[in-house]
Amino acid sequence: MANRPSRRLDRRTTATPHPEVAAEQPSKDQAPPPVQYPFRIHFDDGRTKDVHAENAAEARARHKAIGAITKIKIIREKDQ
């Protein structure tokens, strides 16, 4: 009895899609765009710069030529 298939299996034909499945799905070879977050970079001379990057390491790598970076923080505050 344990190896018997369930009687609740959906027996629809492949021509009629399940109603809960989205009509248009992205193709497998198209990746979703990367999510970018706002970061604030603090430099050792007191300057700050707001940038968008996927993560803090990427933000640091792109802006380390500007000056010595003391810290990088994600911006969580909302604009009012």
Record the SSE blueprint.
Blueprint: E1 37-43, E2 48-53, H1 56-63, E3 69-74
Antiparallel strand pairs: 1-2, 1-3
Tell me what the structure shows.
By secondary structure, the protein is an alpha+beta fold. The protein has a domain of 38 residues. Helices cover 10% and strands 24% of the residues. Strands 2-1-3 form a three-stranded antiparallel sheet, with helices on one face. It is elongated and about 70 Å long. It starts with 36 loop residues before the first strand and ends in a 6-residue tail after the last strand. The model has no long low-confidence stretch (mean pLDDT 78).
Strand content: 15-25%
Overall mean pLDDT? 78
Number of helices: 1
Total strands: the figure is: 3
- Determine the N-to-C terminus distance: 62 Å
CA radius of gyration: 24 Å
Sum up the overall morphology in one term: elongated
H-E string:
EEHE
